[in-house]
Each structure stands twice: as structure tokens, then as C-alpha cells.
Amino acid sequence: xxxxxxxxxxxxxxxxxxxxxxxxxxxxxxxxxxxxxxxxxxxxxxxxxxxxxxxxxxxxxxxxxxxxxxxxxxxxxxxxxxxxxxxxxxxxxxxxxxxxxxxxxxxxxxxxxxxxxxxxxxxxxxxxxxxxxxxxxxxxxxxxxxxxxxxxxxxxxxxxxxxxxxxxxxxxxxxxxxxxxxxxxxxxxxxxxxxxxxxxxxxxxxxxxxxxxxxxxxxxxxxxxxxxxxxxxxxxxxxxxxxxxxxxxxxxxxxxxxxxxxxxxxxxxxxxxxxxxxxxxxxxxxxxxxxxxxxxxxxxxxxxxxxxx
Length: 309
What we know:
alpha/beta, 2,3-Dihydroxybiphenyl 1,2-Dioxygenase, domain 1, 2 domains, 4-stranded mixed sheet, two-stranded parallel ribbon
């Protein structure tokens, strides 16, 4: 079992100071904890993920109000719980069996998943909500009993007794391997990437998905002579930061991730060609005027449009 490092406190302070990479570490560390809270209220992992994303957005907006880093877990728990209750108020709380599913070739596996879900959630209804959170978090995360207790504001002995009780209840009601059911819903770095993208989009920031932030930052500095912020992000002439998000699985989109104006598209195209940057032929149309598409080492596309006048 992993233990939280005291460095987590510094990480929280860094996140409060605007270090987005530090915030991402918080998301990665607490995703399954918040998922256990949301699932214990909503009873559906897909809806719970939506609630967790919303909770992390609220966390990002209000992290500056957290005065004591040691209380991050309980603070996040409260946000996730309130958010999940809000989701529950507007949810139908049942899984729809639609006509598309009935007519498709996937009806058998769909029904199997529905039955497993219904059985697990039915068994968990024998437990009160806090005990549901304890046992779900136990199977979703790799946290120790001590860490679960700190997050849920319970003693280690209370956590252990609730887990024993929950196991007995689940075994009485379920013949299936319920531990595997929870394991398959664990959240990882892909979810953290989704949260990060949503936060930056809603906050109006620019973000670029990359496989290596250090190399990508060096590429921007080399080819565009950009300065960096105190958090190490490239800064555009407008003063806005580019958030380079490291992701495990990156599939470049066909659309440009960033479009900007330049004094001369021809001059930029010549410069990029000289520097060995992959680019497209210069084009001109009635919509953009003269423009140029080019790519970074991760395959992200950019569009440079020549200023008018």
C-alpha cells in the first residue's frame, strides 16, 4: 500500500500558487477516492465519473480557500459528496434499457454488465453510505487503512471493522468475484488527462497535449523564442500561457490545436523549413486569407494566419 508523502503538502501549496502540474498530481492521487464517494451516492460508475470531474473543477476554482493542506482529503470529500447529491437530484437513478441496445449484437454482454451492476449495487444497499464508501475505496484504490481513515475522518479500527462487515455482506449476496468488478472501474492517468483538459477549457486557457513536456517546451522556445512563466510554461506574446499536458496515449487531432496571427506567413514558412519543422504548403482563401499549417514533434497541428493591413 502506498503512503502519502509529506511532500503532498508542498504539492498543495504549489497548486494553490497556480502550478497546474501540481494540481494534476492531486487529481491523480485522489481520483479513485472521490469516485468511491460519488459511486456510493449514485450507484453508477459512469455518472459517478461525471460527478468526480465536476468536483475536481470546483476544487481547482476554490483551492485557494484551503488554509490547511492537511485537510485536503476531508475538503475534497465534502466537495465530492455535495456534488454527487446534486447529481442524484437530477438523475433517474436507473439504467435505461433502450431499443438500440435490444436490437444490437451487443445485447448479451450489455445484459451481463447490467446484471452484475444491479447485483453489486443491490448488495451494497445493505450497508449505510459511509460503509459503502469505505469498501468501494478499499477495492478501487491502493490506499492503506490509515489513508482511508484520514480521508473519511474515521479511525483505522473503524475502517477495518467496516471493511470486514462489508465483505461479509457482499459475499452473502454475490456469487461473483465482486473485487474484480471494482478493479475494472479504477481510474488512472487517462481520467486525470480528461479532468485537466476540462478544467483548462472551462478556465479559458490554451493547452497542448504532449508526450514529453520538457522536450515540447524546448521546441517552442527554440522555434518561436517564447519566454516561460514561473511555472515553466511557454508564454505567448499576448501574455497567455500554453499549458503543455503530458499524456500517456496521444492521438493528434486533425484540427489545429492553436491558431494565431503572424506578420508574414511566407517568412514564417521559410523559417520553419530552414529549421526542419514539418509544415504544409502556404494556402490562401476567402475565409482566412493567406495561411500556413505546421506540426510539432507530437503531431499537433497549428495554423498561422497572416495579419490583414
